[in-house]
Amino acid sequence: MVSLWFSLPKGSAGERPDVKKELSVLLRPQVLSALLTTVLGAGAMFTLYTYISPVLNTLTHASSLFITAMLVLIGVGFSLGNYLGGKFADRSVSGTLKGFLLLLMAIMLGDPAAGAIPGRGGHQHDCLGRSNLCGGSAAADAGYARSA
After folding, report:
1. C-alpha angle 139/47/34, rounded to 5°?
2. What's the predicted TM-score (pTM) here?
3. C-alpha to C-alpha distance for 30 and 41, rounded to whole angstroms
4. Running DSSP on this structure, what letter comes out for residue 124?
């Protein structure tokens, strides 16, 4: 705070914002839709990250090294998904949202079957991580684009 005090230019107080007007943007259907998509996507992402260790441990009796590798793989998927989501959203926000939400749904429906096949669970969770973050990036872009 001290460094901000000294580094920011001194200026006039300016006009006071109308808080009610600023918050009224949150009631627009487009903004609510973008917020809901973001919340659901983030919920799915954190659910995956929270429960992967107990699920792999209980259902597949995976070693701690394998579980650690899966968590790293999910992190890589999150990073790639965030990058790809931004790139795809630059082309088409709506198309990216629809495409990645459908992909997430397909991955989640296929998750039980993939978990039963030895060696396929890791690939499945990496794809889930990527898809989740792609959709999240697009949802964030949609919120900015529609509220402007």
Report:
1. 15
2. 0.56
3. 16
4. H
End-to-end CA distance of the chain: 30
CA distance 33 to 10: 39
Nearest to 144 by CA among 15, 21, 1, 25: 25
Q: In angstroms, rounded to a whole number, what is the distance separating the alpha carbons of residues 37 and 39?
A: 6
Residue 44 to residues 36, 37, 107, 109, 135, Cα–Cα distance (Å): 12, 11, 12, 13, 11
85-129 pLDDT per residue, tens:
888 888 888 888 788 878 877 777 776 666 555 555 555 554 555
d(CA 84, CA 132): 11
Q: Could you tell me what percent of the chain has a pLDDT over 70?
A: 73
pLDDT tens, 3-31?
Answer: 988 888 887 777 888 899 889 998 999 88
Residue type, 135: G
Q: Are 52 and 71 in contact (CB under 8 A)?
A: yes
Q: Report how far residue 147's alpha carbon sits from residue 98's, in angstroms, rounded to the nearest whole number.
A: 19
User: Per this entry, what is the length of the chain?
Assistant: 148
